[in-house]
Amino acid sequence: MIKRTLAALATMAAVLGTSAAACPDWQGRPYFGTVELYAGFSPDPYVRNVTAGGTNDLARCGLNAAGYVTSRPDFDLYWRGSSSQMTIAIEARADAVLLVNAPDGSWHYSDDYRGTNPAITFYNPQEGLYDIWIGSYDGSRRNPARLVFTEFNY
Questions:
Q1: Domain residues of the chain, as ranges?
Q2: What pTM, to 2 d.p., does this model score?
Q3: I want to staple 53 with a disulfide (CB 3.0 to 4.6 A). Which of 16, 46, 124, 136 is the partner?
Q4: Which of these, 67, 63, 41, lies nearest to 151 by C-alpha position?
Q5: Domain range 34-150, CATH architecture
Q6: DSSP 39-104
C-alpha cells in the first residue's frame, strides 16, 4: 500500500512538473531579444519584427487567458523613467494574443484590442523588466508580427 501511494505521488509530481514546464517562464531567455527604453524615447513607436504563436495552452496555466505561447518570453523590455503611459501592442494578420509579466510579478493579458490584434496600456508604468509573450489564439505558429512600444495613445 505504501509503495502504491508513493508511486501515485511520484506520478502526480511528474504530471504537475510537466504542466508547469509548458507554461510561461519569465526567467527564460527571450527568443527575439531585449531592449531598454527610457521615458520619452525616440523614435516613438519602437517596433520589432517577431513571430506570433506557440504550443503551450494558456488555459492550462491558471492565468485566466486563452491562446498558445512559447515557454520562454518572446521579448524583454527594460523600462526606465517616469511616463503617464506606455503601450505594448502586436500587429499581425493572425489572431494574436499578448501576455506580459510586469516588474511587480503581475500578469496582464490581451486579445482583440484592435480587430484581432492585442494591446496592453500601462498607466504610470513601473520601472523594471516586462517579459512579453506573443502568442496565437488558435495555436498556429510562425505568424509574422510586429511588436510595438509607444507612449502615445494607441
A1: 34-150
A2: 0.86
A3: 136
A4: 41
A5: Sandwich (2.60)
A6: TT-SSSSEEEEEEE--SEEGGGTTSS--SEE-SS-SEEEEEES--SEEEEEEEESS-EEEEEE-TT
> For residue 65, how many other CB atoms are within 10 A of its CB?
21
Distance CA 138, CA 68 (A): 7
Strands 34-38 and 75-80, bridge-based pairing: parallel
pLDDT per position as a tens digit, 25-64:
999 999 999 999 999 999 999 999 999 999 999 999 999 9
Q: Is residue 136 within 8 Å of 54, Cβ to Cβ?
A: yes
CA torsion through residues 123, 65, 142, 72, sign:
positive
- Is the per-residue pLDDT at 130 higher than 80? yes
Question: Which DSSP state fits 114?
Answer: B
At 22, the pLDDT band (50, 70, 90 cuts) reads confident
